[in-house]
Amino acid sequence: MRRVNGLATTLSRAIATGAPPAAAQRRLVQAGLFSTFSSSNNSQGFAQSIADRFKKASPSVAGGVAGFSAAATSLAQEAHAKEPVQSQKFLPNDVVLYQYEACPFCNKVKAFLDYYNIPYKVVEVNPINKKEIKWSDYKKVPILTVDGDQMVDSSDIVDKLFQKIHPDNSATDSEEERKWRGWVDNHLVHILSPNIYRSPSEALESFDYITTHGNFSFTERLVAKYAGAAAMYFVSKKLKKRHNITDERASLYEAAETWVDALKGRQYLGGSKPNLADLAVFGVLRPIRYLKSGKDMVEHTRIGEWYSRMETSVGEPCRIKE
């Protein structure tokens, strides 16, 4: 730990930002922990306690879960059409997502937008100063604006969008669907960080993605990759203990098998097409799919076929390139 502290202290001297160093450090640690915590009441407190513990060790821990799903599925797979926006009452002109590229909760929202063919712009938030969301009283991501109206919290965003698309539906999901959406937020996300930061090499792999795709200056990128990876390697051990995880990979494989069992032989939990639980699981797993942990998950469990069907159903991103 002393070596990590020394490395982080040395690298931190290379950074000159407008935010006070301690504040910047706490924000980055909280961003790095974003992959593990939902917006429950005790999340911020625990993240703050970890941030305080590491504030002298690492000035840059960013973004959350690393990775991004980029590979195309085989032509031999069965084709599944994307869901069109069905409501003529919901034809937004301007949809903007404020996000961290690697954040699983942000990826939940993007999976929904992509599946429903809703074009959206992306604003990548700098996790140090968060200047891109200073206009909002809500200081977490994702934030979605739809024709100027703000929506926050990934599950709430999805619920509100679903109601706009399906205004005649009195409820967004069935009891089964609601159960598994809760499982994603309260269980699955907590397994990810201990897996992607399991070893020094996997932590570096994750932060290589974070620093490549995140909104960082050159010096911030340098510090985040090495000091951030070192810090999160140790933080992941705390998370492993907190969530009673004895074997990281075994817990990931068990979660994948649990989800496949929940399908009960169906193509999707929603039957012939994905429902909101399918989109939530897919969105959370998409950032890790082509990291070592995601590759191991597909190799050692039965989740691969479902995931490939989801890739096809969700299709290409609807993100508007600017």
UniProtKB/TrEMBL annotation:
<dbReference type="GO" id="GO:0012505">
    <property type="term" value="C:endomembrane system"/>
</dbReference>
<dbReference type="InterPro" id="IPR034335">
    <property type="entry name" value="PGES2_C"/>
</dbReference>
<keyword id="KW-0444">Lipid biosynthesis</keyword>
<comment type="pathway">
    <text>Lipid metabolism; prostaglandin biosynthesis.</text>
</comment>
<keyword id="KW-1133">Transmembrane helix</keyword>
<dbReference type="GO" id="GO:0001516">
    <property type="term" value="P:prostaglandin biosynthetic process"/>
</dbReference>
<dbReference type="GO" id="GO:0050220">
    <property type="term" value="F:prostaglandin-E synthase activity"/>
</dbReference>
<comment type="similarity">
    <text>Belongs to the GST superfamily.</text>
</comment>
<keyword id="KW-0413">Isomerase</keyword>
<dbReference type="InterPro" id="IPR011767">
    <property type="entry name" value="GLR_AS"/>
</dbReference>
<dbReference type="InterPro" id="IPR036249">
    <property type="entry name" value="Thioredoxin-like_sf"/>
</dbReference>
<dbReference type="Pfam" id="PF13410">
    <property type="entry name" value="GST_C_2"/>
</dbReference>
<feature type="domain" description="GST N-terminal">
    <location>
        <begin position="93"/>
        <end position="169"/>
    </location>
</feature>
<dbReference type="InterPro" id="IPR040079">
    <property type="entry name" value="Glutathione_S-Trfase"/>
</dbReference>
<keyword id="KW-0812">Transmembrane</keyword>
<keyword id="KW-0276">Fatty acid metabolism</keyword>
<dbReference type="InterPro" id="IPR034334">
    <property type="entry name" value="PGES2"/>
</dbReference>
<keyword id="KW-0643">Prostaglandin biosynthesis</keyword>
<dbReference type="InterPro" id="IPR036282">
    <property type="entry name" value="Glutathione-S-Trfase_C_sf"/>
</dbReference>
<dbReference type="Pfam" id="PF13417">
    <property type="entry name" value="GST_N_3"/>
</dbReference>
<protein>
    <recommendedName>
        <fullName>Prostaglandin E synthase 2</fullName>
        <ecNumber>5.3.99.3</ecNumber>
    </recommendedName>
</protein>
<keyword id="KW-0443">Lipid metabolism</keyword>
<keyword id="KW-0644">Prostaglandin metabolism</keyword>
<dbReference type="GO" id="GO:0005739">
    <property type="term" value="C:mitochondrion"/>
</dbReference>
<keyword id="KW-0275">Fatty acid biosynthesis</keyword>
<dbReference type="InterPro" id="IPR004045">
    <property type="entry name" value="Glutathione_S-Trfase_N"/>
</dbReference>
<keyword id="KW-0472">Membrane</keyword>
